[in-house]
Amino acid sequence: MTLEALTIGRVGVDLYPEQSGVPLAGVSTFAKSLGGTATNVAVAAARLGRRTAVLTKVGPDGFGDYVRQALEGFGVSPDFVGTSPDLQTPVVFCELNPPADPPLLFYRSPIAPDLTLTDEDVPWDVVASVPLLWVTGTGVSAEPARATQRKILEARGRREHTVLDLDYRPMFWPSVEQAREEIGGMLDHVTAAVGNRAEVEVAVGTADPDTAADRLLSRGLRLAVIKKGAEGVLVATPEGRSTVPPQRVEVVCGLGAGDGFGGALIHGLLSGWDPVRIAEYANAAGALVASRLACADAMPTAAEIEELL
Protein backbone atom coordinates (compact mmCIF):
# COMPACT_ATOMS: atom_id res chain seq x y z
CA MET A 1 0.00 0.00 0.00
CA THR A 2 1.33 3.41 -0.99
CA LEU A 3 0.55 5.78 1.86
CA GLU A 4 -1.10 9.14 1.29
CA ALA A 5 -0.84 10.45 4.85
CA LEU A 6 1.27 9.67 7.91
CA THR A 7 0.24 11.10 11.28
CA ILE A 8 2.62 11.16 14.24
CA GLY A 9 1.74 11.27 17.90
CA ARG A 10 -0.70 10.38 20.60
CA VAL A 11 -2.56 7.11 20.89
CA GLY A 12 -4.65 5.68 23.69
CA VAL A 13 -7.78 3.86 24.70
CA ASP A 14 -10.73 6.11 25.52
CA LEU A 15 -13.15 4.89 28.18
CA TYR A 16 -16.60 6.47 27.90
CA PRO A 17 -19.26 6.29 30.66
CA GLU A 18 -22.34 4.36 29.65
CA GLN A 19 -24.33 6.54 32.07
CA SER A 20 -24.53 10.04 30.59
CA GLY A 21 -24.46 13.10 32.82
CA VAL A 22 -23.18 11.17 35.83
CA PRO A 23 -19.93 12.19 37.61
CA LEU A 24 -17.14 9.63 37.28
CA ALA A 25 -17.65 8.60 40.91
CA GLY A 26 -21.16 7.44 40.02
CA VAL A 27 -20.41 5.68 36.74
CA SER A 28 -20.78 1.91 36.89
CA THR A 29 -19.79 0.84 33.34
CA PHE A 30 -17.56 2.16 30.54
CA ALA A 31 -17.21 1.41 26.83
CA LYS A 32 -13.80 1.54 25.20
CA SER A 33 -12.84 3.21 21.94
CA LEU A 34 -9.63 3.92 20.07
CA GLY A 35 -8.37 7.42 20.86
CA GLY A 36 -5.51 9.91 20.69
CA THR A 37 -5.36 12.95 18.44
CA ALA A 38 -2.96 11.74 15.75
CA THR A 39 -4.63 8.32 15.73
CA ASN A 40 -8.14 9.72 15.39
CA VAL A 41 -7.05 11.98 12.53
CA ALA A 42 -5.62 8.99 10.66
CA VAL A 43 -8.89 7.11 11.20
CA ALA A 44 -10.96 10.09 10.05
CA ALA A 45 -8.96 10.40 6.82
CA ALA A 46 -9.18 6.64 6.23
CA ARG A 47 -12.98 6.84 6.54
CA LEU A 48 -12.85 9.28 3.63
CA GLY A 49 -10.94 6.79 1.50
CA ARG A 50 -7.38 7.91 2.20
CA ARG A 51 -4.52 5.45 2.75
CA THR A 52 -3.15 6.40 6.16
CA ALA A 53 -0.81 5.20 8.88
CA VAL A 54 0.11 6.47 12.34
CA LEU A 55 3.60 6.57 13.80
CA THR A 56 3.24 5.98 17.54
CA LYS A 57 4.00 3.51 20.34
CA VAL A 58 2.01 1.44 22.81
CA GLY A 59 2.80 -0.80 25.76
CA PRO A 60 3.25 -4.61 25.70
CA ASP A 61 -0.27 -5.17 27.01
CA GLY A 62 -3.77 -6.06 25.90
CA PHE A 63 -4.66 -2.45 25.21
CA GLY A 64 -1.68 -2.25 22.85
CA ASP A 65 -3.02 -5.31 21.01
CA TYR A 66 -6.42 -3.62 20.87
CA VAL A 67 -4.90 -0.46 19.33
CA ARG A 68 -3.33 -2.42 16.47
CA GLN A 69 -6.48 -4.47 15.87
CA ALA A 70 -8.69 -1.37 15.94
CA LEU A 71 -6.44 0.48 13.50
CA GLU A 72 -6.62 -2.41 11.06
CA GLY A 73 -10.38 -2.50 11.47
CA PHE A 74 -10.57 1.18 10.55
CA GLY A 75 -8.32 0.70 7.52
CA VAL A 76 -5.30 2.45 9.05
CA SER A 77 -1.90 0.76 8.72
CA PRO A 78 -0.46 -0.34 12.10
CA ASP A 79 2.98 -0.93 10.54
CA PHE A 80 4.56 1.97 12.42
CA VAL A 81 3.06 1.28 15.86
CA GLY A 82 6.02 0.35 18.04
CA THR A 83 6.19 -1.02 21.57
CA SER A 84 7.76 0.53 24.68
CA PRO A 85 8.55 -2.59 26.74
CA ASP A 86 8.50 -0.91 30.16
CA LEU A 87 5.43 1.30 29.75
CA GLN A 88 1.69 0.82 29.58
CA THR A 89 -0.69 1.80 26.80
CA PRO A 90 -2.39 5.04 27.95
CA VAL A 91 -6.05 5.12 28.92
CA VAL A 92 -8.27 8.20 29.11
CA PHE A 93 -11.47 8.46 31.10
CA CYS A 94 -14.11 10.89 29.86
CA GLU A 95 -16.80 12.52 31.97
CA LEU A 96 -19.71 13.43 29.68
CA ASN A 97 -20.63 16.58 31.56
CA PRO A 98 -20.71 19.14 30.02
CA PRO A 99 -21.12 17.35 26.69
CA ALA A 100 -19.64 20.16 24.56
CA ASP A 101 -16.34 20.14 26.46
CA PRO A 102 -16.20 17.06 28.68
CA PRO A 103 -13.38 16.76 31.25
CA LEU A 104 -10.69 14.18 30.53
CA LEU A 105 -8.65 12.16 32.99
CA PHE A 106 -5.38 11.03 31.37
CA TYR A 107 -3.37 8.03 32.59
CA ARG A 108 -0.01 8.60 30.87
CA SER A 109 2.49 8.37 33.75
CA PRO A 110 5.44 8.26 34.14
CA ILE A 111 5.50 8.96 30.38
CA ALA A 112 3.31 7.81 27.54
CA PRO A 113 4.82 5.37 25.03
CA ASP A 114 4.04 7.76 22.16
CA LEU A 115 6.41 10.29 23.74
CA THR A 116 9.29 7.79 23.64
CA LEU A 117 9.64 7.81 19.84
CA THR A 118 13.31 7.74 18.77
CA ASP A 119 15.17 7.82 15.46
CA GLU A 120 15.01 4.03 15.28
CA ASP A 121 11.20 4.09 15.26
CA VAL A 122 10.91 6.44 12.26
CA PRO A 123 10.30 5.21 8.68
CA TRP A 124 12.55 7.86 7.18
CA ASP A 125 11.73 6.97 3.57
CA VAL A 126 8.03 7.49 4.28
CA VAL A 127 8.69 10.79 6.07
CA ALA A 128 10.54 12.08 3.01
CA SER A 129 8.04 10.91 0.39
CA VAL A 130 4.52 10.69 1.82
CA PRO A 131 2.18 13.26 0.21
CA LEU A 132 0.98 14.55 3.60
CA LEU A 133 2.73 14.47 6.98
CA TRP A 134 0.79 15.42 10.14
CA VAL A 135 2.60 16.39 13.36
CA THR A 136 1.25 17.67 16.67
CA GLY A 137 2.09 20.09 19.45
CA THR A 138 1.77 17.31 22.01
CA GLY A 139 4.50 15.44 20.15
CA VAL A 140 7.11 17.96 21.36
CA SER A 141 5.93 18.10 24.97
CA ALA A 142 8.61 15.67 26.21
CA GLU A 143 11.83 13.94 25.24
CA PRO A 144 12.80 11.85 23.35
CA ALA A 145 9.78 12.46 21.08
CA ARG A 146 10.54 16.21 21.00
CA ALA A 147 13.96 15.75 19.41
CA THR A 148 12.64 13.00 17.14
CA GLN A 149 9.82 15.14 15.78
CA ARG A 150 12.27 18.00 15.18
CA LYS A 151 14.49 15.66 13.14
CA ILE A 152 11.46 14.43 11.24
CA LEU A 153 10.54 17.98 10.25
CA GLU A 154 14.11 18.77 9.24
CA ALA A 155 14.23 15.62 7.09
CA ARG A 156 10.90 16.52 5.55
CA GLY A 157 12.32 19.85 4.35
CA ARG A 158 8.98 21.70 4.46
CA ARG A 159 7.62 19.62 1.63
CA GLU A 160 3.99 20.17 0.71
CA HIS A 161 1.91 19.07 2.62
CA THR A 162 3.44 19.25 6.11
CA VAL A 163 0.71 20.04 8.62
CA LEU A 164 1.00 21.04 12.29
CA ASP A 165 -1.97 20.33 14.54
CA LEU A 166 -1.25 22.81 17.36
CA ASP A 167 -2.97 20.40 19.81
CA TYR A 168 -2.13 22.26 23.03
CA ARG A 169 -3.16 20.48 26.22
CA PRO A 170 -2.04 22.27 29.40
CA MET A 171 -1.70 19.08 31.45
CA PHE A 172 1.15 17.91 29.20
CA TRP A 173 3.32 21.01 29.73
CA PRO A 174 5.17 22.53 32.72
CA SER A 175 4.37 26.07 31.49
CA VAL A 176 2.76 28.02 28.67
CA GLU A 177 6.14 29.61 27.95
CA GLN A 178 7.79 26.26 27.21
CA ALA A 179 4.85 25.18 25.08
CA ARG A 180 5.11 28.43 23.07
CA GLU A 181 8.82 27.91 22.51
CA GLU A 182 8.51 24.29 21.39
CA ILE A 183 5.27 24.47 19.41
CA GLY A 184 6.15 27.86 17.93
CA GLY A 185 9.51 26.50 16.86
CA MET A 186 7.83 24.01 14.53
CA LEU A 187 6.14 26.73 12.50
CA ASP A 188 9.27 27.32 10.43
CA HIS A 189 9.11 23.72 9.17
CA VAL A 190 5.46 23.25 8.16
CA THR A 191 3.25 24.40 5.30
CA ALA A 192 -0.04 24.51 7.22
CA ALA A 193 -1.25 24.83 10.80
CA VAL A 194 -4.62 24.21 12.42
CA GLY A 195 -5.86 25.08 15.91
CA ASN A 196 -8.41 26.93 18.00
CA ARG A 197 -8.04 30.38 19.57
CA ALA A 198 -6.36 29.08 22.73
CA GLU A 199 -3.91 27.02 20.69
CA VAL A 200 -2.89 29.84 18.36
CA GLU A 201 -2.38 32.08 21.39
CA VAL A 202 0.13 29.56 22.73
CA ALA A 203 1.83 29.25 19.34
CA VAL A 204 2.05 32.90 18.27
CA GLY A 205 1.07 34.95 21.32
CA THR A 206 -2.40 36.19 20.35
CA ALA A 207 -5.92 34.74 20.42
CA ASP A 208 -7.21 37.22 17.85
CA PRO A 209 -7.81 35.06 14.75
CA ASP A 210 -6.80 37.62 12.13
CA THR A 211 -3.68 38.72 13.98
CA ALA A 212 -2.77 35.08 14.61
CA ALA A 213 -3.25 34.32 10.92
CA ASP A 214 -0.94 37.21 10.04
CA ARG A 215 1.74 35.87 12.36
CA LEU A 216 1.40 32.31 11.07
CA LEU A 217 1.63 33.36 7.43
CA SER A 218 4.62 35.57 8.21
CA ARG A 219 6.47 32.39 9.22
CA GLY A 220 6.14 31.05 5.69
CA LEU A 221 3.01 28.93 6.06
CA ARG A 222 0.75 28.61 3.03
CA LEU A 223 -2.40 27.84 5.01
CA ALA A 224 -3.61 28.83 8.48
CA VAL A 225 -6.84 27.33 9.81
CA ILE A 226 -8.17 28.88 13.03
CA LYS A 227 -11.28 27.42 14.65
CA LYS A 228 -13.48 30.10 16.25
CA GLY A 229 -16.17 27.90 17.82
CA ALA A 230 -19.67 29.25 17.25
CA GLU A 231 -18.21 31.94 14.96
CA GLY A 232 -16.96 29.42 12.42
CA VAL A 233 -13.50 28.81 10.99
CA LEU A 234 -11.01 31.32 9.58
CA VAL A 235 -8.96 30.05 6.64
CA ALA A 236 -6.07 32.24 5.59
CA THR A 237 -3.50 31.98 2.79
CA PRO A 238 -1.03 34.53 1.41
CA GLU A 239 -3.65 35.27 -1.27
CA GLY A 240 -6.62 35.98 1.03
CA ARG A 241 -8.84 34.82 3.87
CA SER A 242 -12.43 33.87 4.63
CA THR A 243 -14.54 32.83 7.60
CA VAL A 244 -16.66 29.75 7.03
CA PRO A 245 -19.82 29.60 9.21
CA PRO A 246 -20.31 26.68 11.61
CA GLN A 247 -22.64 23.73 11.14
CA ARG A 248 -25.41 23.68 13.75
CA VAL A 249 -25.90 20.33 15.49
CA GLU A 250 -27.04 19.05 18.86
CA VAL A 251 -23.81 18.25 20.69
CA VAL A 252 -23.65 14.79 22.25
CA CYS A 253 -19.90 14.79 22.90
CA GLY A 254 -17.40 17.40 21.72
CA LEU A 255 -14.47 14.99 21.96
CA GLY A 256 -13.01 14.01 18.60
CA ALA A 257 -14.74 16.78 16.64
CA GLY A 258 -11.40 18.47 16.00
CA ASP A 259 -9.92 15.17 14.86
CA GLY A 260 -12.80 14.61 12.46
CA PHE A 261 -12.09 18.12 11.18
CA GLY A 262 -8.43 17.17 10.79
CA GLY A 263 -9.14 14.03 8.80
CA ALA A 264 -11.36 16.01 6.44
CA LEU A 265 -8.65 18.67 6.17
CA ILE A 266 -6.22 15.97 5.05
CA HIS A 267 -8.73 14.74 2.48
CA GLY A 268 -9.29 18.25 1.14
CA LEU A 269 -5.59 19.06 0.89
CA LEU A 270 -4.84 15.81 -0.93
CA SER A 271 -7.80 16.48 -3.24
CA GLY A 272 -6.39 19.89 -4.16
CA TRP A 273 -9.52 21.75 -3.06
CA ASP A 274 -9.55 25.49 -2.39
CA PRO A 275 -9.28 26.50 1.30
CA VAL A 276 -12.92 27.55 1.68
CA ARG A 277 -14.23 24.26 0.35
CA ILE A 278 -11.84 22.38 2.64
CA ALA A 279 -13.07 24.34 5.68
CA GLU A 280 -16.73 23.81 4.82
CA TYR A 281 -16.17 20.09 4.42
CA ALA A 282 -14.09 19.83 7.59
CA ASN A 283 -16.67 21.84 9.55
CA ALA A 284 -19.34 19.35 8.54
CA ALA A 285 -17.14 16.40 9.51
CA GLY A 286 -16.44 17.89 12.93
CA ALA A 287 -20.12 18.64 13.50
CA LEU A 288 -21.08 15.05 12.75
CA VAL A 289 -18.55 13.75 15.26
CA ALA A 290 -19.82 16.20 17.91
CA SER A 291 -23.33 14.84 17.40
CA ARG A 292 -22.15 11.31 18.29
CA LEU A 293 -20.52 9.49 21.18
CA ALA A 294 -16.89 8.27 20.98
CA CYS A 295 -14.02 9.49 18.82
CA ALA A 296 -12.61 7.04 16.27
CA ASP A 297 -15.90 5.15 15.95
CA ALA A 298 -17.73 8.42 15.29
CA MET A 299 -15.71 9.55 12.26
CA PRO A 300 -18.06 10.18 9.32
CA THR A 301 -18.03 8.86 5.79
CA ALA A 302 -17.91 11.07 2.72
CA ALA A 303 -21.58 10.31 2.02
CA GLU A 304 -22.56 11.49 5.51
CA ILE A 305 -20.60 14.72 5.14
CA GLU A 306 -22.09 15.43 1.71
CA GLU A 307 -25.60 14.80 3.07
CA LEU A 308 -25.09 17.31 5.88
CA LEU A 309 -23.68 19.88 3.47
Regarding quaternary structure, how should these chains be classified? single chain
The CATH superfamily label reads Ribokinase
Alpha plus pi helix count: 10
Structural class: alpha/beta
Helix content: 25-40%
Q: What's the total number of strands?
A: 14
CATH topology value:
UDP-N-acetylmuramoyl-L-alanine:D-glutamate ligase
When the domains are counted, the total is 1
Biggest β-sheet strands, sense, barrel: 10 strands, mixed
Question: Beta-strand percentage?
Answer: 15-25%
Protein name: 5-dehydro-2-deoxygluconokinase
Pfam families: PfkB
Keywords: ATP-binding, Kinase, Nucleotide-binding, Transferase
Family: Belongs to the carbohydrate kinase PfkB family.
Task: Please outline what is shown here.
The chain has a single domain, classed as UDP-N-acetylmuramoyl-L-alanine:D-glutamate ligase. The protein is built from ten helices and 14 strands. The chain has helices spanning 37-47, 62-73, 124-129, 145-156, 176-185, 197-204, 209-218, 257-271, 275-290, 302-308, and strands at 5-8, 12-17, 30-35, 52-58, 76-77, 81-83, 91-94, 104-107, 132-136, 162-165, 192-196, 223-227, 233-237, 240-244.
Describe, in plain words, how this protein is organized in 3D.
This protein has helices at residues 37-47, 62-73, 124-129, 145-156, 176-185, 197-204, 209-218, 257-271, 275-290, 302-308; strands at residues 5-8, 12-17, 30-35, 52-58, 76-77, 81-83, 91-94, 104-107, 132-136, 162-165, 192-196, 223-227, 233-237, 240-244. It is of the alpha/beta class. The protein has a single domain, classed as UDP-N-acetylmuramoyl-L-alanine:D-glutamate ligase (3-Layer(aba) Sandwich), CATH 3.40.1190. The strands form two sheets. Strands 1, 4, 5, 6, 9, 10, 11, 12, 13 and 14 form a ten-stranded mixed beta sheet that branches. The chain has a four-stranded mixed beta sheet with strand order 3-2-7-8. Strand 12 (223-227) and strand 13 form a beta hairpin.
